[in-house]
């Protein structure tokens, strides 16, 4: 038995390591519930039984400690008996992965529990590592047919210098952005030739995978977890943090897209293994996407960026056959060439061929759409709709016990897990809702302005008034708190309109950071924290996973309820699917989704017991 009180009580193991440690009732409750499920699962003699815990834990509970302690203790107990317990923790964002692998897990394993034999590792996708075959091809192509050196961009030069001397091949070592040059030295899982590659034994990605698989605790992301089923075929314990994102990420991970540039690059790779063998694919790609672009420009409405495609006979000129024929011919060429490089190209060609085959598949569980792009030809997307059938087969079947947790999982007036269960295909599970450690009624004030026009207004004057009133609220809040505010928006359009107005009226000493100003979210948030008087403006990626405690954040503005974008093909398809099953798309999908997103956004403000805002 695992005694959770021995770890988390006032005189427990953690208290010995923290001078000002105070037990958190919610953390202890979650850890105890998880410990019960774990021990029941591991004593179950039925190898096919699945034991599940759904645990909603608000900000400040300390979820990572609560869900890590018991499995790590069990792993050590198993190790002492000469057995292995594999624990996999999957998250939705890089920030939490970094926190787990660099801070939380090392502290628990090395300091709190002092289990020196317990190993932990971060498992990343193959595309994060240099491919030695691609690097060989890159080095071999530095001179043209006349023996002259090929001109390289700054990024290519820097990348090549690093790639030829790195010991790990890990992209994380880079101190610059390689941009598109990275594609010249890396491959995706669908391109890797595996055991047929001459560099298989010295492969950087394989070395990282081998190290991770030797570890007791593996931290990874949802994409790797879902796509690397052969690598993580069996997991004794599976922990899914930020589980409210699982459905959307599953649709993204199992979906795919097709672009003109992607097809042309594939044609270029065919030309590298056999001159002119990719010319037909390049030519057909130009014709196909040219016709598709003409159709989009003529038929899409001004406000329309995406449109579902249920039948690819939308226009006689948009013919998939010519692309498929060119891909089949390319595959034949690659097979005949037979070199390791040609084998990589053939895998990529057949992967693309399968995508075009599936475009014409009439199965109802896939949504396909075409996205209009500025100064580029359109983008074709395909994604699964109902993941409740996919996840039990592709993910849950690979473990015996799992925990799904997040700060936002329950919906409805009675706060239940019904929406999450139905969406993720979870039938039997133990449930726990952990109370917040904060007194939100005392720490925060909710202000609902009554003078701002509804988001539904369409008349130009009313829309302008809405933007102006939103900007007025933002400036008043920023002035009151001397900056130190986060403004969250549901669309880029509203963000840009409000920014245009407040940049003229906000006090001069207050600096404005907005999403897109810096390369990534982490850099943007760090810059905001470092500035004494700043406001931060953002869209979806700043609604969650952002931790700004203390005086750095005292005001939060949300422009409207974050309902799913009703014009987006995925949301249209999901709503349609629910209604085909006899449900109501608005109450059964849109309202729960908006509830979870709103709770995530509001959760940015109060991060500690002494925060106010």
Please outline what is shown here.
With 613 residues, this protein is of the alpha/beta class.
Question: Could you walk me through the main structural features you see in this protein, from its secondary elements to its overall organization?
Answer:
The mean pLDDT is 92. Helix 4 (63-80) packs across helix 5, helix 11 (260-273) runs antiparallel to helix 12 and helix 18 (460-480) packs across helix 19. This protein is globular. The relative contact order is 0.11. The strands form three sheets. It has a seven-stranded parallel β-sheet, sandwiched between helices. The protein has a four-stranded antiparallel β-sheet with strand order 6-9-8-7, with helices on both faces. Strands 13-14-12-15 form a four-stranded parallel β-sheet, with helices on both faces. It is α/β, with parallel strands linked by helices and 613 residues long. The chain is built from 22 helices and 15 strands.
* Global morphology: globular
Strands in their spatial order, largest beta sheet = 3-4-2-5-10-1-11
Q: How much strand?
A: 5-15%
Largest sheet: 7 strands, parallel
The helix tally amounts to: 22
Report the uncertain regions.
none
Provide the residue-averaged pLDDT: 92
Radius of gyration, CA atoms, in whole angstroms = 26 Å
What would you call the structural class?
alpha/beta
- Report how far apart the termini are: 43 Å
> Helix content range of the residues, please?
40-55%
Total DSSP E strands: 15
